[in-house]
Design a protein that fits this description.
Largest sheet: 2 strands, antiparallel
Order of helices and strands: HHEEHHHHHHHHHHH
Number of strands: 2
Strand order of the largest sheet: 1-2
Shape: flat
Distance between the termini: 32 Å
Radius of gyration: 26 Å
Number of helices: 13
């Protein structure tokens, strides 16, 4: 989905940068937005709402077709059924609309002169270089436009935040539990006694699982930092607009002023999707999800509130750290 959205909203527009026949290429922005809205409606309903509220789809639309047959003097009814959910229709229709949009765009590009068609093809084969060259050719006036988060930024930050916290948490759990903790217990007698008491009172699997859940929850901070730092477009635009000379507090205020809705949406989606997966008891071998401990300990309402607070704090921490990093790069002339 991230690749489709990137191609539909960004890469193909960059591919037409500076071409004489660019105006004749149909981009259909309203049609594109409608297809993305329909597609996202189906995906969010499937991944979040169904799993979060009732653990899967319960209601289906059934299309039936009856055919009466007679064989060997025996008459019977052959029934054909197609079961489909409303969100499946949304996903299918949204996907077909995106494919239609791409086809219309390709047909328009095919009418360009041969040299321009060749240039578009070369640009699309290297989207990273394409975007860099497009940014380099922009005027100073266009560079000063306020930055806003794109759908690609949003998807990459949300997915990277949840996955990175689970993977980083698992790695930290194994190092802490099977390397650091045994060594510390060997040399610190009170700690060894404390761990022995816990082992006698509680089932060891529950103890290990709780430790892993707690570490995974803490890992949401470095995970969202990494997700924010990887969204270089936002931070580099921030450095351009401020010449890299704002202090962290001022930089955060600047970002909240220009990207508040994007940051709020990112934090809310990470919290709701992460908590929803935990509430739906999604299991991944050897991994815990970021909010498993909260989901089990606080219930739905307080769990969502805690997840939102933790995610927002991690988002702010990641934004400030990423801005400091890119400001340093700017001041060093990189």
């Amino acid at each position: 989905m991230a690749a489709v959205i990137f191609c539909a909203r960004s890469a193909r527009a960059y591919a037409l940068e500076g071409l004489s026949g660019a105006d004749s290429v149909k981009s259909l922005p309203h049609f594109t937005n409608a297809s993305l809205c329909i597609l996202f409606a189906g995906v969010i309903s499937s991944l979040l709402l169904d799993a979060f509220f009732w653990g899967g789809s319960l209601d289906f639309i059934c299309f039936e077709r009856y055919k009466y047959l007679t064989e060997g003097g025996v008459r019977y009814t052959d029934v054909y059924q197609l079961d489909i959910d409303l969100k499946d229709i949304y996903i299918f229709v949204g996907g077909i609309m995106l494919l239609a949009r791409c086809a219309i765009w390709d047909i328009s590009v095919s009418k360009l002169p041969k040299e321009e068609r060749k240039l578009v093809s070369e640009r699309l084969r290297s989207p990273a270089g394409l975007i860099r060259s497009a940014r380099a050719d922009r005027s100073d006036e266009s560079r000063l436009k306020l930055s806003v988060g794109s759908p690609l930024d949003l998807v990459s930050t949300v997915v990277a935040g949840i996955l990175a916290s689970a993977i980083f948490g698992a790695a930290a759990y194994f190092v802490f539990t099977f390397v650091l903790l045994p060594v510390a217990a060997e040399y610190i007698s009170p700690l060894g006694s404390f761990l022995n008491d816990i082992g006698r009172k509680y089932d060891y699997e529950v103890v290990y699982r709780t430790i892993q859940e707690a570490i995974t929850l803490l890992a949401i901070f470095p995970a969202l930092y990494g997700a924010n730092a990887s969204a270089k477009r936002l931070e580099k635009q921030f450095v351009r607009n401020t010449e890299g000379r704002l202090l962290p507090g001022e930089g955060l205020a600047y970002r909240l002023k220009n990207n508040l809705s994007f940051d709020i949406l990112t934090a809310v989606l990470v919290a709701l999707i992460g908590f929803g997966l935990s509430a739906a008891q999604v299991k991944v071998p050897y991994l815990c999800l970021p909010f498993d401990l909260i989901c089990r300990s606080f219930g739905t309402a307080r769990g969502i509130a805690a997840a939102l607070i933790i995610t927002a704090a991690a988002q702010i921490f990641g934004a400030v750290t990423a801005q400091r990093r890119w400001c340093a790069c700017c001041l060093l002339g990189e």
